[in-house]
């Protein structure tokens, strides 16, 4: 074995504490695989005295994590603080500038500053590793960056947020209320420090932009992701979806073709026969279609202490072995920049839920708007009283271009018969 890999840990929350535990429990095999001892030299977090359920006495405590970057007795800084900017970014920059390896689980930082950080890493010949940042414990960064590297990939999509999947599937199976299940996901350590990043789809979009870059060899384009979360999904949608043969899932989709780079995160209806319909709880799944390998399906735990720590320590093992290359699919200057592709031309089926007044003529008005916009209806359900005195009218369209649905909704805008905002979800058709 060569000399120890000297590690500093910045951030000792869910993931940081998990990393300390994993190294302790699996030390022998981790060190055999890294071909050298792993030595945690120093740690930093906001609160020194917090009980983390682990013995930290062997590690030097540092108040300012950025000072870790300048130290000669540290080889790798592990950034587990979180946040796209602030202390996490200051630490990442200082670490790479000093030529040290950086391991991070911070998808928000990578989505916003990944190219800059990758360039710094390349300039210094330093490692920038981030397996934990996308789909937690699933080795999907390794899978796309290395395993599928010989393929042209046309589409990559999946369930990228454990908190949302936990909420949707718990609502589906146990009929519990959204807020109650969100609080449970927070207690279990799945949610971001600000959980609106989870439920508004932003966290999934951060991850999708990273996956798209790896899959297509394009520059990260977080700004180009169209984002919708799950706030407006009601228990009724989950129940209607079930009746119609679907499950509701928050899905991120990225596709590269002659139209450009299409990236979208949104609640979708997955047909019950689709593998994503069977991804439950905090599990994540990623599907990628390669031109030689065919369909790859990665599934596993996308959030939580153990799975995320597993990914962080795998990166440390790679660094211990000296195995790393460009942070993304290829050196930064080789990544292409594709223009964002518009959604309007995309063709697919759509689920629409309207809350309508319970009076004659409503159905006729709705179906006329659909007809005039060229949207044909595959199935229609009208049932039940809602809290605001209306009834739900749910339809699934045949395949239509998205702009036709937008046109139909515009025709109905302002109608006295429609109470509240219609709910729209796309049907997953990959
Ligand atoms: N919790 C999860 O399941 C997963 C989290 N991640 C990512 O891992 C990172 C950490 O997440 P968690 O452990 O869940 O967060 P957390 O909120 O549990 O822990 C954050 C840690 O950073 C420390 N910290 C905050 N500001 C600091 C500062 N200025 N200086 C030093 N330490 C500071 C806090 O004291 C705390 O120990 C985030 O980037 C998150 O997005 C990635 C995958 C899964
Ligand atoms: N908040 C995230 C944690 C992992 O990235 C999630 O819920 O998936
Ligand atoms: Na991962």
Automatic annotation (TrEMBL):
<dbReference type="InterPro" id="IPR001342">
    <property type="entry name" value="HDH_cat"/>
</dbReference>
<dbReference type="GO" id="GO:0004412">
    <property type="term" value="F:homoserine dehydrogenase activity"/>
</dbReference>
<feature type="binding site">
    <location>
        <position position="107"/>
    </location>
    <ligand>
        <name>NADPH</name>
    </ligand>
</feature>
<dbReference type="InterPro" id="IPR036291">
    <property type="entry name" value="NAD(P)-bd_dom_sf"/>
</dbReference>
<comment type="similarity">
    <text>Belongs to the homoserine dehydrogenase family.</text>
</comment>
<dbReference type="GO" id="GO:0009086">
    <property type="term" value="P:methionine biosynthetic process"/>
</dbReference>
<dbReference type="InterPro" id="IPR045865">
    <property type="entry name" value="ACT-like_dom_sf"/>
</dbReference>
<feature type="active site" description="Proton donor">
    <location>
        <position position="207"/>
    </location>
</feature>
<dbReference type="Pfam" id="PF00742">
    <property type="entry name" value="Homoserine_dh"/>
</dbReference>
<keyword id="KW-0028">Amino-acid biosynthesis</keyword>
<protein>
    <recommendedName>
        <fullName>Homoserine dehydrogenase</fullName>
        <ecNumber>1.1.1.3</ecNumber>
    </recommendedName>
</protein>
<dbReference type="InterPro" id="IPR002912">
    <property type="entry name" value="ACT_dom"/>
</dbReference>
<dbReference type="InterPro" id="IPR016204">
    <property type="entry name" value="HDH"/>
</dbReference>
<feature type="binding site">
    <location>
        <begin position="10"/>
        <end position="17"/>
    </location>
    <ligand>
        <name>NADP(+)</name>
    </ligand>
</feature>
<dbReference type="InterPro" id="IPR019811">
    <property type="entry name" value="HDH_CS"/>
</dbReference>
<feature type="domain" description="ACT">
    <location>
        <begin position="351"/>
        <end position="423"/>
    </location>
</feature>
<feature type="binding site">
    <location>
        <position position="192"/>
    </location>
    <ligand>
        <name>L-homoserine</name>
    </ligand>
</feature>
<keyword id="KW-0560">Oxidoreductase</keyword>
<dbReference type="GO" id="GO:0009088">
    <property type="term" value="P:threonine biosynthetic process"/>
</dbReference>
<comment type="pathway">
    <text>Amino-acid biosynthesis; L-threonine biosynthesis; L-threonine from L-aspartate: step 3/5.</text>
</comment>
<dbReference type="Pfam" id="PF01842">
    <property type="entry name" value="ACT"/>
</dbReference>
<keyword id="KW-0791">Threonine biosynthesis</keyword>
<dbReference type="Pfam" id="PF03447">
    <property type="entry name" value="NAD_binding_3"/>
</dbReference>
<keyword id="KW-0521">NADP</keyword>
<keyword id="KW-0486">Methionine biosynthesis</keyword>
<dbReference type="GO" id="GO:0050661">
    <property type="term" value="F:NADP binding"/>
</dbReference>
<dbReference type="InterPro" id="IPR005106">
    <property type="entry name" value="Asp/hSer_DH_NAD-bd"/>
</dbReference>
<comment type="pathway">
    <text>Amino-acid biosynthesis; L-methionine biosynthesis via de novo pathway; L-homoserine from L-aspartate: step 3/3.</text>
</comment>
